[in-house]
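Help!! Second protein's tokens look totally different from the first
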Amino acid sequence: MEKEVEPVFTVSRNNHHQTTMGFLLSKSMDANLKKQQEFMLHNSRLQMERQILMQNQMRERQMAMQIAWSREFLKYFGTFFSVATVGLTVGAVKRKKPVLLAPIVPLGFIFAYQMDSAYGTLIYRMRGEAESIMASEHDRLDLPLGTPTFDSVEKARRAKNSLASFLEK
């Protein structure tokens, strides 16, 4: 009988040892999983920060190009406006027809707008108005059919692929 008790004791000790090792292994795996999740979260944050920075740099470059375009256009339009103003003024004085000065008014508005766009505060006023719209009229910014979702994009992709395969036949 002692032989029967001894193996039970041994088995019992082994089970305890296995349970302890299983617990320690499980605890170690949990710690590794937690570290891996933290690492993945850190990487996804870095990736998002990089994407935001890249998109902002692209936006800044596009805005700089738009301002540069306005300044370049202003040089040409300013030259045209100056020549037209001098020509119309000389023509109005020589012919004694003040009506010839009429085109200077709308051309002057265009010139003033371009000046404001290229060197003035137009961009700041536009930004303020945009912020106001976003704060108090946000419903005007809604896209038709709402924001695209993964499912809506996938549905469109599948429809395009099935149409393309149908047209190929």
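Here's the second one for comparison:
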Amino acid sequence: MDLVKPFMDLHVGEASEVIREQCQELILSDKQIEEIMRRLLKEINKGLNKATHPEADIKCFITYVQDLPNGKEKGKFLALDLGGTNFRVLLIHLKDENDFEMVSKIYAIPQSIMLGSGTQLFDHIAECLANFMKEHSVYEEKLPLGFTFSFPLTQLGLTKGILARWTKGFNCSGVVGEDVVQLLKDAIARRGDVQIEICAILNDTTGTLMSCAWKNHNCRIGLIVGTGSNACYVERVDNCEMFDGPKDPNKKHVLINTEWGAFGDNGMLDFVRTEYDREIDHFSINPGRQIQEKMISGMYMGELARLAIVKFTRAGLLFGGVGSDILFKRGQFFTKYVSEIESDKPGTYMYCRDVLDELGLEHATDEDCANVRYICECVSSRAAHLVSAGIAALINKMDEKSVTVGVDGSVYRFHPKFHDLMKAKIRQFVKPDISFDLMLSEDGSGRGAALVAAVACREAH
């Protein structure tokens, strides 16, 4: 007897025929996945190519990170992780292979600074850095620093990154179009009291790959599936026409930050988008942008499920046609609800009932619960399959015999089936002679940043 059934079939007996039929458009066929892989690769090649880069959806930014950790990095390193309303400062002491000590502190960025001048922002960061170094008795030492900056950057080198645009509620004047590494250096110099050598600037995807590569030397892809979605991978320098500056003949590879959330912005994914996807895009703060991300990430998954549930309720197919004010309110069905509902054991609806109670749907029947769970499964499986299509395409493109994918992000971490769904789907579409593994990253944006600095120092000395 076959005990391992695909997840999509687990509760088929419970969801009603009509709901399954209505959800069909949320299920990607193998043929569609193959087409998505083909289109994604085409877009990646456009991003790598100088002539087509300007119109490419997937920008494939060069990170200038050309060396992966070999486990022999030693010493003390600072990391600065700026990606939202807080930032973290970390001190990492790498001792032996896989042995390290780490202390960190989170600092808030007041609203006035988020909307103030760039000078204010970087002075605030430099002050917190100096205080942190005092607290941890490294004030007198000259330490290398890795800077994770999770905003869209055009990198011109390992220590040169031009801010393309602010996101996430920031709007500091005098920073867009400027080199953020230089702005941080200037702020440190204005203080004149601490010695910090900024060795690298990177985004969280690169950090994820580096963090995993320190433990697992086969790591060639970094993936984020959280509030947003992005991936980076190892590419041959020969394929990177956008690589600017001197090329080292001994370094044949470089990390590429794909920024694949923007896949589909030019209509490439229209053939699999649904009315729910179009509605989410229409009401988002960036209509027409980040189309793939809106089908995958934690910022949108709950709302996708809610839109389907609302449609079926209004059609009389759920809850006897009686909804609730909360259900009908945009953004009130959180992505964590999807994970909770799918955590119920088959045939039980404990978490599902808790969620529906919170939404004011106490009148839900067992069949309603089964149908809601099926809708959630369709939404999360589609997200996992879209991610898998991208990862399989990258693994096949690199064509190495064994590849580890470092993964981070709340959706991958907390959804009960995301990992297994990805493993099965990637296996289906990766060349049969390639083996791969998915590895949960531990603190890519922190430890990964320190590791990029450590590797840069190893190379420089």
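Reply: Different proteins will give different token patterns, so don't panic. Confidence is low (pLDDT under 50) at residues 1-13.
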